[in-house]
Design brief:
Elements: E1 6-7, E2 12-25, E3 30-32, E4 37-38, E5 42-58, E6 66-69, E7 72-73, H1 78-92, E8 94-95, E9 98-104, H2 114-129, H3 136-146, H4 150-153, E10 158-161, E11 174-178, E12 186-191, H5 201-211, H6 215-235, H7 238-257, H8 268-282, E13 287-291, E14 297-301, H9 306-314, E15 321-326, E16 332-334
Parallel strand pairs: 1-8, 6-9
Antiparallel strand pairs: 2-5, 2-16, 3-4, 5-9, 5-10, 6-7, 10-11, 12-14, 12-15, 13-14
The protein binds ligand DP6.
Ligand DP6 is lined by residues 23, 26-28, 36, 42, 115, 147-149, 201-202, 292-293.
Amino acid sequence: MSKAPIELDAPRCASARAGANFALIKYWGKRDLALNLPDVGSISLTLERLCTETTVSFDPALDADELLLDGRPDPARTPRISAFLDLLRARAGMRAFARVETANDFPTAAGLASSASGFAALTVAVNAALAAGWDARTLSELARIGSGSAARSIFGGFVEMHRGERDDGRDSVAEPLAGVGHWPLQVAVAISTRAEKAVGSTEGMQRTADTSPFYRAWVEHQPADLAEARAAIADKDFERLAEVAEGSALAMHGLAMSARPGLLYFNATTMECLHRIRALRADGVPVFFTVDAGPQVKAICEPVALPTVRDALADVPGVLDVVESGLGPGAEVIDS
Ligand code: DP6
């Protein structure tokens, strides 16, 4: 029999910071919707600069959960956060509503992975506020239920998310592949819109799994890409990583385009940036691209190439801004 949840007699509060992550080998498709189990493993880089900071206050005086995003109430996103908090409260055996104050230092939902850093920061903040004592693997498992990519932002540097085999999701967790110091790559993001995307990743990947005639082929091919990327990262073989990461990003977008109706995340500027990056690499500049469920282009490069890559992207018509970041640590508790 499960124990009755403990009622709090005083507010409990904690803050955490998590970096966004960009997948080199993409997650696109689920094998279970309720537990948010991925149908494919994935490999990502956790970033230093594109961060979410979240403060959670469990307060017995509240009569509902509240979400403030960048200082403003966000009723549209509150139900997803509240459902996630229900899960964490049940795991921790606590009962009290919470105020969640969260701030991103990048445009929310424009393809810069705000759900990854957001759910990772929230999970780590709740763990601290409720003194739940969850270890990193458990934090990754819980963050995954909030958003699949969030499982990876628990860890820093190069991270692998496992598809897992179990129905309960205990093995669908991320783990660190290599630390920041192993290969301190840099990232430049070409921002070409600040608007929110029309079809979010959750809906987009479901539509793809339900309707694309090529979905099974994508799932079957993924282990080969994961193995290739793992080997390229271990050997710090830039060209090898560039080829497999661009291949995975283009395969994901090709697959998304083959859904019915097809998903078009690129805009004209996205395409220009991809050509620019390919031309730079052909000229010997160590850079490759990846693109997620939005139009922003993420250029990954060796540190020496960053000024060239930044200037080349800033020069593409339609690029509004170029944001730079190194690789960063996993999600961590910070002072409130
Ligand atoms: C294109 O993690 O946002 O960024 O699990 O439904 O929350 P949910 O999806 P989400 O999807 C990320 C998709 C992607 C590729 C990736 O990050 O691997």
